[in-house]
Design goal:
Layout lengths: L4 H6 L5 E3 L8 H9 L4 E6 L3 H14 L4 E6 L5 H9 L4 E5 L4 H9 L3 E6 L2 H9 L4 E5 L5 E3 L4 H12 L4 E4 L5 H9 L5 E3 L1 H4 L8 H9 L5 E4 L1 H6 L8 E5 L2 H6 L3 H6 L1 H14 L22 H20 L4
Parallel strand pairs: 1-9, 2-3, 3-4, 4-5, 5-6, 6-8, 8-9
Antiparallel strand pairs: 7-11, 10-11
């Protein structure tokens, strides 16, 4: 059994946190990860109130273990924060923006504050906000992120914010990645893409199968999906997704895409309804090479943790 600051903070059996993937990490998946001994986070994303009410109720009803919610800081408002806190989660994770204004409300509610950061300046802001945990997210991660790689970013953040515990994110999909994160000084790992390809994840089975079939060099960071969907992400936060025909058509032609938005947005939404992933986005990180099947979330939590234990013991045996 691996015991860290993360497991102590939430009384977890495993130092694994579900990444709050918008539209993927619903109540069923979050509850499954929590019930398995990790920390499940619902992907609150842009703060859709109707979706949040349904999924937060589902999580609360289906687990008695600690759980939480993740939000995109720049995209939500006080009403969303109040709604989330009304369900009494054990943790709220804020990502992509200054966490201090909303972080104060989270802390005042007696809730643990988790902040995801992409560089050292953001890490220091998170510490000022009173973060109980700071997630250092490398650019290998699926979905939105920054430009720093996980391997050098994690120990730099660990050093910068000590003694606040840090989690590693980005490119972690098995026990080897978790063991590496612990060796870098992290107290656990926040894992996304591996749990996208799980039974309980929301999303179409065909999207999950695309992840299973993909290779890391078939992912890329691009703004084209945000442009066509109408999400005005701040500069520097591009999303990593699987390459598809839409990317081939519009990558490097973002200005032209903006001019063609009326027709392209209509076509994109039609493709969403049809489940056409040659056009619509599948967010995925570089660790897709390590994903070979769609599995139950509980089995993933258990196996990743056991693999990490075995890897850490094997590493210790190298010492003479």
């Amino acid at each position: 059994m691996i015991q860290t600051g993360l497991t102590d903070l939430f009384n977890l059996r495993h130092p694994i946190v579900l990444a709050p993937m918008a539209g993927v990490a619903g109540g069923q998946l979050a509850a499954a990860v929590s019930n398995a001994g990790g920390l499940g986070l619902v992907g609150g994303g842009y703060g859709d109130a109707a979706w949040l009410r349904k999924e937060l109720f589902s999580t609360r009803e289906n687990t008695s273990r600690p759980w939480g919610v993740g939000l995109i800081t720049w995209a939500v408002n006080q009403r969303v924060i109040d709604l989330v806190l009304s369900y009494q989660p054990d943790a709220v994770m804020l990502s992509f923006g200054d966490p201090r204004p909303y972080g104060a409300f989270v802390k005042a509610a007696g809730c643990r504050l988790i902040c995801q950061v992409q560089d050292l300046n953001e890490a220091r802001l998170a510490q000022q906000a009173g973060a109980d945990l700071i997630v250092a997210q490398g650019t290998e991660a699926g979905g939105h992120g920054g430009t720093r790689a996980t391997l050098p970013l994690v120990p730099a953040v660990v050093d910068a914010v000590a003694p606040t515990p840090v989690l590693a994110a980005g490119g972690i999909a098995d026990g080897r990645g978790l063991a590496a994160a612990l060796a870098l000084g992290a107290h656990g790992a926040l894992i996304g893409t591996r749990f996208y390809a799980s039974t309980e994840a929301q999303g179409r089975p065909s999207a999950k199968q695309r992840i299973v079939a993909a290779h890391g060099n078939e992912t890329l960071r691009t703004p084209v999906f945000d442009i066509v969907r109408g999400y005005g992400w701040p500069q520097g936060y591009y999303g990593r997704a699987l390459h598809n025909a839409f990317v081939t058509r519009w990558s490097g032609r973002e200005e032209e895409l903006m001019q063609a938005l009326p027709a392209e947005r209509t076509a994109y939404h039609e493709a969403m309804g049809d489940g056409n992933f040659d056009t619509t986005v599948v967010w995925a990180g570089e660790a897709v090479d390590l994903i070979h099947s769609v599995e139950d979330a509980a089995a993933l939590v258990e196996r990743i943790s056991l693999e990490a234990e075995a890897r850490l013991r094997a590493s210790a045996a190298l010492l003479r």
